[in-house]
Specification:
alpha/beta; 340 residues; six-stranded parallel sheet; 434 Repressor (Amino-terminal Domain); six-stranded mixed sheet
C-alpha cells in the first residue's frame, strides 16, 4: 500500500502543502485559520497520515518524545492524557507515560532522561495547590520545555494550564438563577480544616461572593468536611432540612452533589423540583449517570492536555521562547442536564 504523504493530506484538505506543514509543526509567522486547521486535521485522520518520527528526529536532533507525569490512579490525569496524546500523535510525537506511584520525587528522574535526549519536554498533571519551588528551579536550571496542568497557579515563572474556576462558578450561578430565580446556596466541600482550601476552591468562593454582592443578595455558604461514614450522611440530611425550599444549591465538587442527592432521597425531596442543584466539577465522573443526571460546569481536562501539548510543541519547535511562561486559562464547559 502506498504510504500517505503530506501532499496527499494537502490535496484532500484543499490547501497547500505549506499549510499542512504549518499545522503539523506549529510554524511561527504562518497564521492558519481554524477552518483550514480543522480541514487538515480531518484529512490526517481520514487518510491515516503519520509523520515519519524516526527520520524527523534524526534530521532535527530530537527524540520526538514527550514525558507525561502524574498519578495513574487519578482519572483526571487519564483525561488530560487523552487530549495530550492526540495532539502529540498528530504532530509526530510519542508520549512516555511516567506514573508517580505516590512518590513525587520520581519526577526528578525525568530530568536525567532529558539530559540524555531521550525526551524533549515534560507535562505533569499536578494537584491544584502544587507549587514546589525546587522542581520549578530544576526545570529552569536544565532548560526543560515544561508545562504543568493545574499546578503553579501563582508562580508566573512556570507555564501552567489552569481552569477559570472563578468564572466557572459564576456561569453555574447565572444558569441556576435564570432557571429558578432563587438565591443560590454555595455548598463547599473540603478536606481537613475549612481554612485550608486549595487555589481552585478559593477562586470558586471568591466568584460566589462577587456574584452575590453584584446581585445585592445575602450570601449563604455551607462548609462541609469530606468523610465517608454514616454520621456524615446524617449531617447532610440535617443541612438540607434547614435550607428553605424550593432550594437552589451549587456545590464546588460533584462529591457534594452526590451527598445532596442522598439526603434528598432520605427526606423524600425531588431533585429538579424541590431542590435544584449544580456541581462545579466532574471529578468523580458520575454526573451523567446520577438520577436525574446532574447539571454542572465541568473541567475540560482533555482540552487542557491538548493545549499543554501545543505549548510544548511551540517550545521545542522554536516558535516560543522557554522564557515565555504565559498562563493558559481555560473556561469550564457548561453541561445542562435534569437537576435544575
Amino acid at each position: 500500500m502506498k504510504r500517505v504523504t503530506s501532499i496527499d493530506v494537502a490535496r484532500k484538505a484543499g490547501v497547500s502543502r505549506g499549510v499542512v506543514s504549518a499545522v503539523l509543526n506549529h510554524t511561527a509567522g504562518i497564521r492558519v485559520s481554524e477552518e483550514k486547521r480543522a480541514l487538515v486535521l480531518q484529512a490526517i485522520e481520514e487518510l491515516g497520515y503519520r509523520v515519519d518520527v524516526q527520520a524527523r528526529g534524526m534530521r532535527l536532533g530530537r527524540s520526538q518524545c514527550f514525558a507525561a507525569f502524574g498519578d495513574m490512579d487519578n482519572p483526571l490525569f487519564l483525561q488530560m492524557l487523552q487530549g495530550f496524546q492526540k495532539m502529540c500523535t498528530t504532530s509526530g510525537y510519542h508520549v512516555l507515560l511516567y506514573g508517580s506511584n505516590g512518590n513525587e520525587s520520581t519526577r526528578y528522574e525525568l530530568l536525567e532522561m532529558f539530559r540524555e535526549r531521550r525526551i524533549d519536554g515534560i507535562v505533569s498533571k499536578d494537584p491544584t495547590q502544587y507549587a514546589d519551588a525546587a522542581w520549578a528551579q530544576a526545570i529552569h536550571d536544565n532548560q526543560v520545555p515544561y508545562v504543568s496542568v493545574d499546578g503553579y497557579s501563582e508562580n508566573e515563572s512556570v507555564c501552567s494550564v489552569l481552569t477559570d474556576y472563578k468564572g466557572s462558578i459564576q456561569v453555574a450561578l447565572n444558569t441556576i438563577w435564570q432557571r429558578t430565580q432563587t438565591t443560590p446556596v454555595y455548598v463547599e466541600v473540603h478536606h481537613g480544616a475549612s481554612d485550608t482550601l486549595n487555589w481552585g476552591d478559593l477562586q470558586r468562593r471568591a466568584g460566589y461572593v462577587e456574584w452575590i454582592e453584584a446581585k445585592r443578595l445575602t450570601p449563604q455558604i455551607i462548609s462541609m468536611p469530606r468523610h465517608n461514614n454514616e454520621s456524615q450522611r446524617d449531617a447532610w440530611v440535617h443541612v438540607l432540612e434547614k435550607v428553605e425550599r424550593p432550594a437552589s444549591l451549587v456545590t464546588n465538587w460533584s462529591y457534594g452533589a452526590r451527598q445532596v442527592y442522598e439526603a434528598c432521597y432520605h427526606l423524600n425531596l425531588r431533585i429538579g423540583t424541590d431542590v435544584h442543584i449544580m456541581a462545579a466539577d466532574n471529578t468523580e465522573q458520575v454526573n451523567a449517570y446520577m438520577i436525574p443526571p446532574l447539571s454542572a460546569v465541568e473541567v475540560p481536562y482533555r482540552e487542557m492536555g491538548n493545549l499543554a501539548a501545543e505549548r510544548l510543541l511551540q517550545y521545542v519547535e522554536g516558535n516560543r521562547k522557554l522564557q515565555d511562561t504565559t498562563t493558559i486559562m481555560v473556561p469550564c464547559q457548561l453541561v445542562l442536564r435534569n437537576s435544575i
